[in-house]
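Can't attach files on this board, so I'm pasting raw text. These are the components:
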Amino acid sequence: MVEKNQLSPDVKEKLKQEYLKGWRLALRKSIPVKERMKIPRQKMPEREPEERNRDFCEVNLGLAEEAARKEAARCLDCANPQCVLGCPVRIDIPTFIKLIEKGDFIQSARKIKETNSLPAICGRVCPQESQCEALCNLKKATGVPVAIGNLERFVSDYERLHGEVYIPPPAPATGHKVAVLGAGPAGLTVAGELVKKGHQVTVFEALHVAGGVLVYGIPEFRLPKGILEAEVDYLKKLGVEFRMNFVVGLTATLDDLRQEGYEAFFIGTGAGLPNFMRIPGENLIGVYSANEYLTRVNLMRAYAFPEYDTPVFRGKRAAVIGGGNVAMDAVRTAKRLGAEEATIVYRRSRKEMPAREEEIKHAEEEGIKFHFLTAPIRYLGDDCYRVRAMECIQMELGEPDSSGRRRPVPIPGSEFTMEVDLVVVAIGQSPNPLIPQTTPELKVGKWGNVEVDWETMATSVEGVYAGGDIIRGGATVILAMGDGRIAAREIDNYLNSLENR
Amino acid sequence: MAEIIKRERLVPNIHCVEIEAPEIARKCQPGQFIIVMPDEKGERIPLTVADWDRESGTVTCVFLVVGTSTHKLSFLQAGDEIPVVVGPLGRPTKIEKLNTVMVIGGCYGIGAIYPLARAYKNLGSKVLTLIDVKADYLFYWKEKFEEVSDEIFVSSRDYVYDCQGYVPQILKKILRERKQKINRVYASGCTYLLYTCAQATQPARIETIVALNPIMVDGTGMCGACRVTVGGKTKFACVDGPDFDGHQVDWEELFARRKSYFDDEIQSLCYWERKTFP
Ligand SMILES: Cc1cc2nc3c(=O)[nH]c(=O)nc-3n(C[C@H](O)[C@H](O)[C@H](O)COP(=O)(O)OP(=O)(O)OC[C@H]3O[C@@H](n4cnc5c(N)ncnc54)[C@H](O)[C@@H]3O)c2cc1C
Ligand code: SF4
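---
Top answer:
Structure tokens for the assembled complex are below.
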């Protein structure tokens, strides 16, 4: 992966042009820096923990207009904005924030959309504390960064709720056909970018709803389905065709699609293959992969069983193995489905948990328990083959491993047993193997990830590009989108080059 | 959305449904399955493809009416649409020319083994078909099987056929009495039938392939609901199967996992019945 810790000259130039505009200058001068630094970070209004941990409605309620403008006024509008460096897609953060301060919410939303096609989603699910907000100069000065994510969410919600989503006039048709495989954030981004260039885009998706992890994985209480539906509707209005219930590799292979006239491909099939620990008892009833558990609840709406037909086991004592966003989503789901005790079992300590800070905080408030430095070693079942207990071992942190995090080492003799009747294994996913298996020419790496040239997202097969979790393993929404943008640019170039041949 | 071309009751409690699905029909091979969702609130369930028409672009599945989803399917009429039909899923059954093959089917599995019998027949293998039914009148597609089988055996409990008794006894008897070796046995149907077939062929070590039917959700390898243990290793039936070596399957685990949602299934069906027939 290329580490880009510098802004490219053209991004710098654009930032500078906006920075020097008259209105920006006037706005900067309207409040002295000292005063700005005194404004407290505006708190995201959220529902009470005891109320929200029983249902699936969204936890965060969103900033009100006034609070958003106040928060925006905290931004110092630095000449050298570090936050942009933290954002994988280089949103012009100062400009969109200053447009909020000015009260021009619609322009602000459009500014973000120049580089990020799914801001209402990123505002909710990006790990801001380790990206844009981590580098914010205000953080260096006061310890409390501008709430960039909350503001991003605010303007994009504003735009959607006010029905002012701008639909650009269709570009002249180029006559080129592009197939996008997988309707996750990576695929949706590519589809949106290429349709705007006048290409004919078809998205092929295995499931019956578009959105990838955003729809089957991330729960409603964090990302309401309506937001995603609005994004998909928008793409349909732009002219993107969706072919649902279509498993590329089985329903048709990539080569079949080529025969049908598709000239370029984007593989965005994600990391859908659940990892298990391969310890005894993992196939007992009541032990789920996070994918299965969350799919049953989110995609199939098992929380509304029996009105919806798909059941899910509602445990009283739930344990979720893992410390990432997936684990947080699963454990908070278990709580909402009636678990008296819902516990995270994580082999490192709180500090190493990869989940977003806000999710950890929300989980703690909602009464989730945490067993740190602990790992299961086997599951015990009852006569009916249902899980009834879990044997665990305590860990201590040893030397740092390749990821730089300290490696957990089991402490001999520290085994103990925990009573559980529901276990969700959330220790990660691997790239989806179907397309690599059915496209022999496609080069894959050690973990089954599709290999690409990181500058262009091109795979080893001509005209075939890839991005998102299929090349990275489980990563993030914004990285998937970032890959999608690069791939879209390159696919457009590729299609144009075909004409010159 | 996929259109229902035909839905027909074959025998009491067993129906067949023909669905418009041109891509699936074009690709489908014996042993593969599709996932269907009968309506917007329904569950995703796997159905083995029992026949297809590549020209007209339709696939046919046979199903036993048990839970809510199959009840819903059994009420569909030609022209209705269902929201999800996806496939063909799973690995196609391994088929090569062998001298003699025995295909065994019970309930929905009778439909499921039909394309297999046909494929073996087309390759010139001798096809012995063993059908398990409670009574003669439950044997559907008899004419279709007569076309593709060299011999048909029936295990029924109604004294219409001279083979009485349950499948394993008949299977053992055939294995004992036939001079010609049976090269492979293939079975599809309820888990108990598969299990007893595998047991029956074990002593003679005849290769026995069983089409497993664990609970599934997505059917594409994403969820792992369909985990089965085969030869001591965890496999996903949807992508590694559904066919496995019957002598290697951990049957106890499979029986238990099949019943994971037993109470929920009853609750769901009661809920549906109350709503449908107030
Ligand atoms: C529960 C959960 C919570 C998460 N929380 C966060 C978070 O808070 N913040 C964050 O940034 N990231 C989070 N992530 C990670 C993030 O969702 C992923 O990195 C991102 O969705 C990857 O996008 P993608 O487009 O590459 O793939 P996906 O979103 O996985 O989409 C791939 C799509 O391709 C489809 N597909 C697969 N195979 C085929 C095929 N053969 N043919 C057709 N279609 C196919 C799949 O059905 C799926 O719809 C979370 C992940 C999970 C599981
Ligand atoms: S997309 Fe993510 S990283 Fe970029 S500004 Fe928004 S919240 Fe920050």
